[in-house]
Protein 1
Amino acid sequence: MEGTGRDGRITKEEAQKAAEAKKQAPPPKPGKPEEKPAEAPKPQVSFTPRESFSRNATRKKMSRMRRTIAKRLVSAKNETAMLTTFNEVDLTEVMAMRKKYQEKFVEKYGIKLGFMSIFAKACAKALLEMPDVNAYLVDENELEYHDYADISIAISTPNGLVVPPVHNVESLHFAEIEHKIKELSTKAREGTLSLDEMSGGTFTITNGGVFGSLNSTPILNEPQSAILGMHGIKPRPMAIDGEVKIRPMMYLALSYDHRVIDGSTSVTFLVKVRDYLEDPMTMFLDI
């Protein structure tokens, strides 16, 4: 409001008139009350009637193989002084080697260079260096030592786990090991393994990593005194020469019979296997 006084100021009379006009103005009409937004309809949840749930149970006789496996596992757990030691391995060099030479390897030998043959070869070299891990009890008072490494490979079949050995791994070429593992795996899944092919073995390797296992405590394959458990390869940050680098890491587990193998021996053996895998060229150079 602009007044009529000096410099546009509002005079006293103008102020009084404005106050009177405000008093005489009709009160504002009441408006409609504010409407609340309509609530969204609540979802209707329906539950399956309890009487429709399945409550059936069936019984199935165990196969002969499953019964045999069960007895052997219970025996190994109850009759041995089984312990497990763990370590981890950086598979950077193994994976680089496979990537670099895989095509030429397949071209020459007709089969891929897998992890299993590399692990088997590393274990075989360590076994000959540490004969206690490659020995087993033949009775309560006598140990049997071996100057060869017959490595049993755990193979999953529809009927259960079988562990046929690859003989003289220490003397075989990587391609020979791969072909033998493939042959045994095919026969195992077809159910055509002979008793001779199932017999023997001085050490076992099992690979739970193919099924997604991160770590485990593998159970002994009697009468053997040790078994190596492989697991999944996971990229993890590792401290390398003062820097953090992402490396393909695998946990290793060695279960062993403490009646035959001392704790220090088991740890040393696993460290040797790790060292061979982290520098695989030493296996080719035999150093």
Protein 2
Amino acid sequence: MKAVIFRNTDEPVEFTDIEISAPKRGEVRVKIAAAGVCHSDLHIRRGEWDAAVPLVMGHEGSGVVVELGEGVTSLSVGDHVVLSWVPPCGECRNCRSGHEARCRTVATIVAPRGVLFDGTSRLSKDGEEIHHYLGVSSFAEEVIVPASGAVKVRDDAPLDVIALVGCAVATGVGAVLNTAAVEPGSTVAVIGCGGVGLNVIQGAKLAGALRIVAIDIRPEKLELSAQFGATDRIDASSVDAVDAVHEFLPDGVDYAFDAIGRTLTTEQAIQMLGLGGAAVIVGLPPTGARASFEPLTLAESDQRILGSNYGSIRPAIDIPALVDRYMDGQLKLDPLVSSRRPLSEALAALDDLETGSALRTLLIP
């Protein structure tokens, strides 16, 4: 099959033929309908995260089940699925307690080693092992994933668009509804209005937030934020974002979401908080980045700093529910799609994301 391989930062990504083996016990093979291009893919391309290489890129996607491994009873051939980059093992302490986004098997085996649950890969090229990326590797014509990583959704949902639910939507909306549990009437600031940030905004709207302040340096993204529910907008290219938030809301905000993941934006999110506020780190920084805050202020103001991995979702429950919300008109997905490109144009799609000219590009095999 065709796939997009990353080897190192000195080489452009490679669109090439690779071999894919049959699914093993508990796994399924999925024909990819669409793969979203996300900033996490950029972190890999820039060499900002440790990863087992060479690897097939991509972790956001959707498709159709075409083959079942031994013992799989939860899915059938022909099922429409959204891929989850946290395929819960179902057996570790966190999975058993309902915190599947913290799956220990994914955190210690699947993600860092670039393999599936049994510690091996299903991908190769001319005898060379090719690693999986976050248990998905959606920049390909087909994938082999654990059955728990292929979440069945309704058949009438457009397969290409709902690929976004697998990362951007689940991460952004989940950070609001699950990680932070934003209450109706709350005040919210969102730093970064990209694919994830816009979903934080519409998550805050779903939660019934009273004021939602969108912050970005690109006017076109700020304009789009209003469609997703922002009540106020700040162009951080011309003003200090923290000062501007306190001008809108002198007492600070109840929740500040960093949807970018830089040292500066994380520190800004903490500085925007009011009494009892929570800063939620959603965007992922490069490995080793450090941010600072004043512990005394945090303690005296009864504030919190929360990390949000994958929106703290339960994939089998939350992904179908988010697709239902989209189909019912409660969530906007179509405006997030900047363009559709063939899989062979993955490098150009990554470049578009790098320059900030795209929200989400869908790669269509």
Protein 3
Amino acid sequence: MSANRSPSFVWLRGFAATGVVILHACAAYLTVPMPGLTWAIQDRPCAGLNTLFWSIELFIMPLFLMMAGFFVLPLIQKHQVFGFLRHRGKRLLLPLIVFSVILLPLVFYTWMLGWLIEDRVTVAEVKRLKFVAGQDEHLWGLSHLWFLQYLFLYCVVFAAAYSFWPRRWRSATLREKLRRPSLVALAAISLAVLAVAPEVVFGFQHAFYPVPSKWLYSGCFFAGGIWLSVYDPQLRQVNRLCFRLLFVGGLAACVSLFAMRQALIESGFPLAMGLMLLATVVAAWSISLGLHGLAHRLPQRVPMAVQSFATASFWVYLVHHPLVGLSHISVKQLAPSAPAWVKLLVVTTITIAVCLASFHVFVRRTWLGLLLGVPQSPGNASAVATPRASDQQPEGVPRLLRFPARNPSARKAA
């Protein structure tokens, strides 16, 4: 069985998909709105949900990108360069095109419904697609589908680098020398980009094309996944360090959220801004790596419910956006005085339930499932123990890039 179906990544995919749904479910209740993020409706602000939103925002996309980067090296070894690009185009570019045509109009008119209810636009403006100057400034773009576009471009860059990488740079000795400097360099680049463009994390850039600063910052975490697959393919080191990484990441997240209020809302004090940026990068890297290690410690027997949700996670990511918007509108109209935490629970539950129901009815065994790479053969994850990533090397990893399973000198060097 391939490593991407090992229990570690089944747990991670389920957690990440749930996290992104909760993130967007919090968006209607923010006390500190995200600049550039337009939403279908605004409900009564809640400080607790605001904290939850910004806490998830610090690490959720780095986690997705690191998971994606972890598997590109095995894939390119398995399919070779052009086969790899065809594989990634089929799995990323084709769904991006198909779901942009289907979902983006649905998201747009969901948002317009909310704006009409709140009297922010008129029916005539919606029909003409002409709004008050500046009102639609952050309305047009790929919405949450930007991830597929960015990920495909990272794969293209990786394939080119893999093809032209000098042979003399592939020695095991040089690889070991670059182990720590390469990770430090990625963290430093992400910090430098964030210092130039804080809106990469503390804002949202809507566009139909990649935003350079966002593309570079996100690419560091994609490269971090490649780094992890090269230097810790069995997840032993992050497993050993996971609690320390999560503690450091959690502490850094608290510092980042405190400094964010000081830097962006109150005084704009330069020291607070610097502290916010540094803590954000530490939190993103530490939590993302720590969650990989923590997932490796979870039970080897994955419950059927978790396995089923992880299988549907790509579909959940694709279609949840308009469902969250519609749920926000409905909950506000039907229970305007309900506590924000109750509304969050209702919106999240409805969204995930509809996503899972539609997956099993319209996707699981249809052409959509084939398009999204959903396994078509039935399985019973709760009945059969699935091998951990530690029990195998990822498929296709070249011998030069593997760590020997029982080599004391390699463990010492690690």
Protein 4
Amino acid sequence: MTEPDFTLGIEEEYLLVDRDSLALATAPEPLMAACRAEMAGQVSPEFLQCQIEIGTRVCADIGAARDDLRCLRACVARQAARHGLAPIASACHPFSDWKDQHHTDKARYNDLSRDLGGVARRLLICGMHVHVGIPAEDMRIDLVNQLSYFLPHLLAMSASSPFWQGEDTGLASYRLTVFDNLPRTGLPPKFTSWAEYQRTVAALVKMGLIEDSSKIWWDLRPSARFPTIESRICDVSPRLETALSLAALTQCLTRMLWRLMRANQRWRLYDNFLIGENRWRAQRYGITGGLIDFGTLEVVEFPTLIDEMIALVAEDAEVLGCAAEIEALRRLPATGTSSDRQRAVRIDALEADEDEFAAMRAVVAHLIEEFHADL
């Protein structure tokens, strides 16, 4: 069996905030034009006018992904600063109201707003998508079926959206509660072949319900545009290095499952009902509540889960040249997720006798600082 290259591509969505008020701000056209001129084809507007999307090139390894992603983040930060703005890589803005935002005047987004109605207006959320190159179509489907097991693990470690409209939601990833209101979201169904997947998509296309598979927004899917598996589960990460570790883990888990396939083995497939329970636990608790091990039927705490995953993909991390990025995940229980750190900033501000709004502003200032830390 010929080994795929397991190339990497990373897409991230950012929010733009005013440097003074720290509230959301519209991306001015000169900013977008400057970003497009500097990083041609890699920076684009997103659904809402306060958002901006970037995408790396096809990267051979995590080192190339780091170089490209750092350049993209630095470009957006530099151009935004010229307009008194700053980007934050948080899945939700801590206090701005979705009702005050407007969608981008672009054919795709106009159609989306029309088709989804009021649900679309609430899409004040940002995620990270990770593409892993798998040229063989049936292999893509087989690996998607198995990789779904690990989606809650990736979500929990990426959680960066504890606040919504100035309130603590009690969730580590509020983003998913918003996104799950859309059709064709959530865990991917299990297909037996590429042909079955294509027939399913074609049925919706033939009825005129969707134009193509790009309107299927599962947590994990065969990409509509590239010969890749596309993981869409993660909240966007404020810290560059966290984003890279999660991308590397996605790449390594994919190779690990391919390695099992090569040895005529596979990861056990569990019903989406069970995986969905872990997805909820990740959404609610992040890394503080543990996830269910369906083999032992026990809730396992995250430090243990991280150790197990690192051991599971150790061989793959060495082959793919990302052992350092995978090993860095061991520090996550000590540093906390972005959601944990955002809550800590708010509590510190309140304990310093700041009012609630000032505490929320402190959270946004913290997110700006984290975005710029590794540039």
